[in-house]
What we know:
This protein is an alpha+beta fold and 277 residues long. The protein has one domain (3-276): q2cbj1_9rhob like domain (Jelly Rolls, Sandwich), CATH 2.60.120. It has six helices and 15 strands. It is globular and about 60 Å long. The termini are far apart. Bound molecules: fe (ii) ion. Fe (ii) ion is lined by residues 145, 147, 222.
Amino acid sequence: MTSAGMNAVKSHVLDQIAKTPLMTSPFPYMYMTDFFPEEYYSTLLEKLPGDEAYKKYHPPYEARLSIELKPDSALTANEFWKEAVSFLSSDDFLVAMASKFGEHIPKVYSGRREFVEPHRSGKNVSIGNRLILTRDYANYAISPHTDAPPKFITGLLYLARDNSMTNFGTSIYAPKDGKFKQWGADRFQDAHLPYEDFTLLETMSYRPNSAIFFLKTDNSFHGVERSDEYANSGRDMLMWVPEVGVNERSWGNNQLPSSFFYGEDKGALSVIKRLFA
Ligand SMILES: [Fe+2]
């Protein structure tokens, strides 16, 4: 794609982020439509590889196939994916998303502190990228969870080909015990909670070129409902999951001003403290 063409894609996406209303209950999220320009979206669907290029997820989620999109992965040798990865892992995209969630980010600083502090240097916090292509088959389900503790914002781009699987989107939940919150769990298995303990609030529509983005908080309970409705139809997604700090799963090294995590006041306060230290 020409650089002018790619710039048009970027400005379309950034405009859509700015235009989409942010929902704040039960946690900050937004459901986006027309995420990419139409033509770019059609090309992206054509470029999705066959099942043989994907790996099975870890048990018990083998109904999900995935490909880690990294700058050095086989798929990224292809110019289309290289450009897509470059844009979605850019500071511009990260800052646009972080700005969208703006004032809500510092509200969960107490949970995020232990990840932010070790990865902060001066005014910036390092953020690692993860981009994962996933393809889910009929028996894929995942019970309510808030996402892994280092995660920052989670983006699920729905790469639907048509409107035949609209109920196969991400569901959001509220705990029946209104006070229950969870930042993380000691064991991975314990982070995924029983459906019975939650009320299903809404299921995002799995529609072409739509996406859900949400802030990982201590109540960002989401999951996928159990259903056998979509036998043998793969549900394609592109997951964008930046994490605070670069760890063994993530790559790159974006720098996000620490004021995003502290809020302006604490950010300003820390600058003053440094000046007088
Ligand atoms: Fe999740």
